Every structure is written in structure tokens, then in C-alpha cells.
Amino acid sequence: MQPTCRTLLTLLLSAILLSGCWDRIEINDLAIITAAGVDLTDNDRIKLSVQLFVPSPPSSEQSASGPSSGSTNKTVVRDAIGIDMADATARLQERLSRKVFWGQADVFVFGEKLARKSIKEPLEFLTRHPHPRERANLFVSDGPAENVLKWNTPIERNSAETLREMAILQTGLNVSILQAIEELSEEAHTAVLPVVHILQKDGESSPFISGSATFKDLRMADRLDTSVTRGLLWLRNEIKSATITSPVPQGGGGIASVYLFHASSKLVPSIKNGEWRMRVVIDATGNLNENTSTLDTTKEPNIVKLQQNFKRTLQKRIEETVKIAQKSGVDYLGFAEQFYRHYPKQWNKSKKNWDEIFPKVVVSYDIRLVVARNGLTGDNKTLQQSETP
Amino acid sequence: MTHPKDERSTQPDVGAAPSSDAMPDNGTQSTNGSNTDNQNQAQQSAQQQPSQEQKASSNSTNAAYNSGIQMAPTPSVEEVLAYQRQLLSLPVTGKLQDNINTVRELFKDCSDIIVHEFDILNGPAASLVYLDGLSDMRLIDLQILTPLQHTGTDGAHNKEAVVKCVTISAMLEAMDFENVADKIGYGHAVLFMDGVTSALVYDVINPIIRSIEEPEAETVVRGPREGFVESIRTNTTMLRRRLHTPALKMKPIFIGRYTKTATVIAFIEGIADPNLVKEMEGRLSAIDVDGMTDTSLIEEWVEDNPLSPFPQLMSTERPDVVTAHLLEGKIALISDGSPVALIAPASFMSMMQSPEDFYQRSIVATAIRWLRMLFSLITIFGPSFYVAVLSYHQEMLPTSLLLTIAVSREQIPFPALVEALLMEITFEALREAGIRLPRQVGSAVSIVGALVIGQAAIAAGIVSSPMVMVVAITAVSSFLIPNYSLGIAIRFIRFPIMLCAGILGLYGIVLAALVILIHLMTLRSFGVPYLSPLAPVQTSQLKDTLIRTSSPHALTRPHLTGSFFNRIRIRTELYKSRRNS
């Protein structure tokens, strides 16, 4: 054997002996966290509660009859109290037989009490630690976050999965850690997180996303209800699909609904004569879903009338959100960013008194809503009432 | 006879390769006998020099040999070899009895030698020597003995009369016993005549070969079903039947001092680089072994990097594959006794091609080629990736998949690496057993194998079900590689990669992949980079690498080595004009 070969071999062999697989960890030794909740205790400490996946192996009888479904979806909730997140995590690790693994945590829930104080501390941990995913969803819970985690969902694998799926549907907000951090770093330093509300009914609890919480300077400022949140989604251009229902005064007092499958919005700022203006441009296309009015939707003028109705309803909805935001003085609508981008000089001058300017911003609307298809039935004769002579 | 270590130093011994123009069944006519004579004499004089010295030194022991070697105390290896050399260096004399004695001494203790002594009608006394079974007895009876004993030579005592009498066209003349022994060894019949100082060699080889069958290792759905057999003459015939041109050259070379295996270098003059042929000849001539049993041994002698796991010569059993490669300017080695031809130079990508690629429609063949490359990657990296992700990068998996794997791995006592190695090694063992086992117990192994790599292993709690899936996919994908030796190389390099993955995770996989890639980059097959035309990039050849272009579009040949490059493969003027009209 050549000397070089021998040296190489020795080096390789020693590498095997020296390395010892330092980072290697088997799945069997992981406590897989699927969701985590952060609460504030009465004495201002952090209470970290985590939802852990319990892998219960299929017993031999079950394996014969295919994969078992019910028993594998077990989760447990464990909690620990610490000075900060890292401390709480360390204390949590003391109570677990397996290594805490953040890599699969998809959902982080902040308790309202903590949110009202400051979410700086948990966000700092989640962004600094290498393991938690940046694309994990953030939520604010109505009560203690632990309750959300403890909820045993019948449909999905666990409550974390339920919340994530709900967020993805985008009926409410869908905010990841990355998005929240981005928004907080923007000019207005505001963020909006979805709120999880636990509905108590017949002794059963079922959390769902109800409205949103607005943050200013890392502190929860306001609660928005569901319809205002929808208006907010329009302004933030996060609407994927929407159903708008409006009364039809021209058609005998019935109502009509349109399902918007394409929607986009744009904020166009302008400063004229010292007056700060914002034009909300909305472009939406949809199908007529329901029409109980007497309007014959096969006629073009009637469609135009319907479109006007829908436009009004939509504008009212957005106006309401803007009004609430301007009243509270917290700019979570993203106006500040737009002014900063389009008028950087003016913005830099009046950045400091933005909180005074924002409520005075004049908002105008430019909505283009098209009803593309009126449905298969057209003018529905069969369901019409007989005309009284 | 034993072969002690120092035997090499005593060459040339019995197995000195005969000169190339004296190929056993060259069918040389007696008309060019003079040319052969000159060469034989030159050879003879060159070889007599050392043997005469030895004769002088061992003169005292010669008597003992002649009276019978068995009576003397056990002779040393040198003595035995020297005696053999001495006998072989003897010229054919005019005395028939001397010649017969020499032949009998050479072929002593050979039960299959036949020395047939007879008188030619109206001619000299003669003796016909051949090996029983190797030579065709019917041919000897009808074409040699019948004419000689019934027609005769009309009193003439010279060899010309005998040559006229015998009705076999394939005839040579041998002047010394080395030549004679070689010819007898190949199955020729040698005729000694009283008063003639040379022996007549008649080609009466009895060809006992198996029939031509479809090669089992390289089957195609569409395409020729011929495969090479163990007889070199049949194999060269198969090539010649595909390339009816005098440009198809077959240079003979004999390898092995005892086996004297006939080997030919086949190439097409005008396409193949003459320097490539010269290089191959040079490498072959450096082979000095006592025996050559298969082309795989030649491969080990001529390849550029014998330590690499990757085959650097392409092996095939299909004459159509050899023909296609010859037409690309490559050269082929065919050896007697081996149904496998070697093609040089070989590249990685050429071994990833199946003959079927060229018999199916080009779009389909391209898709299959890509599928093959994809699954080769899976073979190499599949289990390693699984091990790395499960041991280091659990966050990379989708949550649901990780949870499912976590459930199935809950009761497994071993780490993922051990589990993977266990299953992969078991699979390799089963595969090997499947090849080696007698057919009768084959089904038993497949049943047990299905249990070992399957539900039973999972139920026993030794391996997890995802691991079984990974092993199964790897097993299937490894057999997509058309070249068996490349496939086996790729199957075995995945074990070190698995270890790297177990030690360093994905980082280890990348490191191992880099090492393999660098090795492949440095590999050369007869001067041609192993990864060509991918690295270095030969753009003109990518259309037969990444895709399989249809024949009218494969305009140029690959450029292999040197400046001798017959570039144009096809001419499309007529094709295009016909299509456009």
C-alpha cells in the first residue's frame, strides 16, 4: 500500500472514531412539539405549554388489519414556567424523557394577557432559535393559550392542525412568524394576528378563528370582530375568495349573493396641498350565487344594477374597518408603508406625528366588481311567485 | 504441475505465445508457405540460443529423462521446464521415427493423443498426430487418410505430392515442435513424413460449442436475440455477419502461457483511431500470465485504474452492441472461451444505455433513459437520504409523514443507520443467494426473502415499515442500470454513503457525493474521460446522452481520442430532399 493511501485510511478511520455522531438524534428520542402556547402568569413569568405528539405504536393485532387510525393521534400538553421562553423551555426539558424538538411546531398561540403586555419576548425566542419554523402560524387566544392546546379535536389530528387548516382556508387571517416580523419592521410598526376564540356549547369547547388582534409596538392594541377583519383582509389584499350578499331594492326587496373568485386590492396614496389621501382600488370578479329578487339576470342592465349593489355593500364593509382603525389611531391597514414608498420625503418629515395624521387621511374607493356569470338557471321562472293581477 | 513463484523468471517456457500469423485456424494456404517458413526459422534460431546452453548444462541428466522421469528422484521445477523447452525447440527432422519419438515424449501421459502410423500408397511412411475429441475424426478419415492410403503419391517422396493428394484446404507447415505442439493443442492434425523436414498441419478442429442463445443478462423486447458463445470463431463470425466489410479488422493475440487463449482486437479501419488500437495492443502484450480464463481477467490487466469500483471497459454479450460501438470508433476484445466481449474506451453514460434504447422510438427511449438516471440516483442516495433525514434533519419532513414514521419507529431498537445497513446488507445477501443457488431451491429462497424483507420483519419489531419501503425501492431501482458491472458498483458505493449519512447527515451525503464525483472525473478509459460527454462537455454528443435522438439526426460520431477522427456518421442530403419533395 502506498504511503498516501495509508495516511488517508488512518485519517478516515480516526474521523469515524472521533466524530461520534454528535448531532444525531433518533426520532424515538424526540418529543415532537406540534404546537406551543405562551401565557403570562400572575407574577409576570412566562408559562410555556406545549402540545406533544405521542407516537403509540400499532400493536401486532392492529397491524394485521391495516394502519390504525384512532390511537395514533394522541397528543399531550405539558407546561413549564420560567423567567423567559428559553428558561421555560429548559424547565420543560427537565420534565420530559425525550428531547424537545421544535422543528415541526406549526402553531404558536399567545395568551391575551401576554399579548396585552408584550409579545417581544416570545417572538425574540422564536426568531433566534434555529429550530422553530419561520412559517409557523401565530395566533392570539381569547383566554389562556393552554386551553387551546388542550382541546381535543375530533376531525383533525390535533388542535394545532385544526388551527393551521383554518388559517389556510383564509376566512380569517393567516399570519406566519415571518410575516409578523416583516410587518412589525415596516414603517407603522403594527401587526395583526388572528384571534382564537373558544366557543363553549353544551359542555363542549370548540376553538375557531374569530376576528383579529391588532398590535402596536409589540403590544396588543385592539380586538377586531370577524366582519371588520374581513374588511381588513380586503385592504391588505389577502382576500382569495369572498361571498358578498346585498339586498336588491330594485328587485322587489329580495337579496342576491355573489361569490368572488378573483379579488385584488391596491392602496394608492397621494398628498395634495398638505392633504393626505388614500385611494383604495379593488378589482373583483365573481359568479352570481343566489338571487331571490325579481331582477332578470339575463338582461345586461339588471346585472349592472346588481353590481352597483354589491359594490356598495363591499365599500361599506371596508369603510367600517377604516373608520375603526382611524378611530383607534393604530395604522394596521398598511397606509404608512404606502406613503413611505411613494412620498419618502414628506413621510420622513412627518413620520413623528403620523399618529395624528393617520386618523385624518381621506380615503376614497375605486371598486370594480364584475359579475362574470349569472348561473345556469338565468331567469328562474320555476321559483317565481305567480303574479297577482 | 505446480507453479512456484519463481517460475516467471524462467520464461520463455512451454507457453510462449506462438507468432500471431500462425493462428490455429487461419486457413492459410500452402502457397504462402515460404513466408511462414522464413518467420518460423527466424523464430527458431532466436529460441535455440538459450535452450542449447541449457542442454549443455543438463546433458548429464538427459539420460535419466530418456529412461523415464518417474524412475529418477523427484526433479526440480527448473529441470522439468528445461526439459519441456528443450523438446519444444527441436526442429522437425527428416527421420520419421525421431519425430514420432519427440511427439510421444512431449505428449507423454496424455491419454488423448493419437499417433497414427501408416504408409502412404506408393509414398513414404507417415504418421498423423492429433488429439482425440479435439479433432474431427470423420474429417481425418475422409479427407486425409482415405486419399493418402487409396490414391497415394505415385512414388513421389516429397511433401508437394502429399499436399496435392490431401483434400483439405486449411493447411499450414510447421518446422519445429513448438509450432507442432501448439497446433496439436488447438485440435489440428499434424502429418509427419519420412524424409521431409517439415510437418503438414491440417485444420480439422471439431467445433463443440453450445448453440447461440439470447443473453440472459441483456434481454431486449425488440431487437436481435443473438448472444456471443464461448467459441471465438463463432463470435467473430457473428460480427462479420453484421459488418460485411474488409474494413472490419480482427488482430489476433494469444494470452496465457498455458491456456494460449486466442483473443482478437476488432475494430473498423478508417473509423477507429489507429493509436487506440496500438495502445490496446501494447497493453495486451504486457499481459504475461499462465492462464486466461475469461475476458474479465483481460479487463483487469488493461484498465486504467484497477482500484476503482467502476468498470472502465464495457462488457456485453450482444454482437449488435459490439457492432454499434465499433461503428462509433471504439474497439472490441473478443476472447476464446468467453461469451463476453469488451469494448474500449467506455464511458459512464454509454453504460447507462440499453440496446433497447436504439430499438424503441426515440421519444420513448429518451423518457426511459431519464427514468433510468433518476432511479440510479435513488439507488445511490435513497437509503442514505432516509438515514440522514431521520437522524439529523427531522424538520425537513412534512409533519404528517414524520408523525407516521415516528409511530412506526417507536418500537424499533436500532438507530436508523443500523436499521438501514441491516436491511440493505440482507437484501444484497438475498440477491447474491438468488444468483448462486441451484434452481431447485430458488423458490424457497424467494419465499424466505419475502418474509425477511417484508411484513414479518416489521411484525418482529426489527425494522420499520418505511425502511422496508426504502429498501424495496432501492432494490428495484438498482436493476434499472443496464450494465451489470456498473450496476453492482453503484449498488456497493451506497454503503459508504450510508455511513457518511449516518455520521454527518446531509452534509456527509454531499461530501461522499463529491468524493465519488471527483473520482469519476479523474477516471479515464483509454484516455477518454469517464464522464464524457458530460464532463468535459461535448455538445455534439449530448443528443445521444441526455436524449436519444433519432438516427437521421445523429450526424456525427463521438470524438474519442487523438486527431484521427472520422466525423461524419450519416449523410442526409437525399433523406432531406425526399422528405421535402
Structure overview:
The complex is a heterodimer of chains A (389) and B (581). Chain A has 389 residues and is an alpha/beta fold. Chain A has two domains: 28-57 and 69-224; 238-379, Nutrient germinant receptor protein C, domain 3 (GMP Synthetase, Chain A, domain 3, 2-Layer Sandwich). Chain A has helices spanning 3-19, 60-64, 85-94, 112-117, 120-128, 145-150, 159-169, 177-185, 226-235, 300-328, 335-342, 344-349, 354-357; strands at residues 30-40, 46-54, 74-82, 99-101, 107-111, 137-141, 190-201, 204-216, 219-224, 242-248, 254-272, 275-291, 362-373. In chain A, the strands form two sheets. In chain A, strands 1, 2, 3, 4, 5, 6, 7, 8 and 9 form a nine-stranded mixed β-sheet that branches. In chain A, strands 10-11-12-13 form a four-stranded mixed β-sheet, sandwiched between helices. In chain A, helix 9 crosses helix 10. The longest helix of chain A has 29 residues, at 300-328. By secondary structure, chain B is of the alpha+beta class. Chain B is elongated, with a radius of gyration of 30 Å. Chain B folds into three domains: 5-202, no CATH class; 232-358, no CATH class; 362-529, no CATH class. Chain B has helices at residues 33-57, 59-66, 77-89, 96-106, 137-151, 159-165, 177-186, 232-242, 274-285, 295-302, 319-327, 348-351, 362-391, 399-409, 416-436, 439-452, 455-459, 465-478, 484-504, 506-522, 573-580; strands at 113-119, 125-131, 171-174, 189-193, 199-202, 248-255, 261-268, 314-316, 331-335, 341-344, 524-525, 528-529. In chain B, the strands form three sheets. A five-stranded antiparallel β-sheet of chain B has the order 1-2-4-5-3, with helices on both faces. Mean pLDDT of chain B is 84; it is low at 1-64. Helices cover 47% and strands 10% of the residues of chain B. The A-B interface holds A 16, 19, 21, 23-28, 30, 32, 34, 53, 55-58, 60, 63, 72, 101, 103-104, 106, 131, 133, 157, 161 and B 390-392, 394-395, 399-400, 402-412, 415-416, 458-459, 499, 502-505.
